[in-house]
Amino acid sequence: QVQLVESGGGLVQPGGSLRLSCAASGLTFSSYMMNWYRQAPGEEREWVARITASGGDTTYTDAVKGRFTISRDNAKSTVYLQMEYLKPEDTAVYYCNRGIYWGQGTQVTVSS
To answer: Is residue 93 within 8 Å of residue 39, measured between CB atoms?
Structure first.
């Protein structure tokens, strides 16, 4: 079955960086667009970034443009989210997504 496993979350100070990873299995990873979403406490889940199957095209929500970079390694069936200049409002559980499939999420907390 399809599994998406996120890692790389943690506690970071404002202005800091983190790189999230999502390892996929059970699907032909290189054939699919992949997404990152996030959900802050008391908020609805929101879409963050998307990358095409080849990795040639990426899109971002306005709140993270210029700070976050989505990438992928199809040989490793892994998608990444490099997060720079983190702000307290980036605090959320971050989820990897493909269609109906979701990972378990990884917590990112931005606080001094």
So the answer is: yes
Question: Which amino acid is located at 109 in the chain?
Answer: T
Map tokens 């917590």 to a residue.
107
Distance between CA atoms of residues 80 and 57, nearest Å: 14
pLDDT tens digit sequence for 46-104: 999 999 999 999 999 999 999 999 999 999 999 999 999 999 999 999 999 999 999 99
The DSSP 8-state label assigned to residue 111 in this structure reads -
Q: Identify the helix (H) or strand (E) that includes residue 57.
A: none
Tell how far CA 19 is from the center of its chain.
9
In the three-class reduction of DSSP (H, G, I as helix; E, B as strand; rest coil), residue 30 is classed as helix
